[in-house]
Amino acid sequence: MSTFIKNQNWRYATKKFDATKKISTEDLSLLKEAIRLSSSSYGLQPYKVLIVENPELRLQLQQAAWGQSQVVDASHLIIFANETNFGEEGINNYFQNVSETREVPVESMKGYMDFMKSAITSLPEEARNNWTAKQTYLALGNLLNAAAELKIDVTPMEGFAPDKVNEILGLEALGLNASVMASIGYRHEEDATQHYKKVRKSNNELFITL
Questions:
Q1: DSSP string, 134-199
Q2: In what residue span(s) does the Nitroreductase domain sit (predicted)?
Q3: What is the pTM of this model?
C-alpha cells in the first residue's frame, strides 16, 4: 500500500505528452486487463472501450476535443463508450456469460435475472443512459490506478463534444455514446505541470466520521 500511495502522489493529469514514447504491448495488455477487471453495477459492464492508435483518426478526434494536444501526442487514446438504451438483451448476454463461466444453468438464476430486468428496464431511457455512462468512470478509475503503478501517465478527459466523437467513430449505429476519454503515454520533460504540488482537500475537510 505504501507504493500505491506513493504512485498516487506521482500521477497527475498530464498536459503535454512526449510523442516519441510509446507504451509497450505488454504494458498495454496490463492496462486493458485492469479495465476489464473493473467493478461495475451488477457486474454488467454496460460499455465498450475503444483504443485509438490511428493518427489520422486521432487528428479528427482532436478537433472534437477543442484542439487538445494530448489527443494526438499521447501513445494511445482510450474512449469509454456507454451502451445506450441498455435493457433485456444486455442482461441476457450477461447471464449467458455467467452460465458459461461458472458452469451453471441460466434457469437457476432466473429469480435474480427477473429482478435485474425489472429494476433496470423500468427506468426511463435517459436514466438508463446516465446510469451506463456512470459505469465507465469506474473503469476509468481502474485505468488511472493501474497506470500509476506502471509509471504510465494518464489524462482523463471530459473536454470534448460527444456528438462529434460519436459521428467520427460511428458510435450511434453501434448503440454507443462517448462518455469519457483518456490519453495515456509518458509525460514530456517540458510539461511544467508535473512539478506542481498536488492540491487536495485535507482529511478534516474531506471525511465525515459518523
A1: HHHHHHHHHHHHHHHHTT-EEEEE--S-HHHHHHHHT-GGGTEEEEEEEEEE-B-TT-GGGGSPP-
A2: 10-186
A3: 0.96
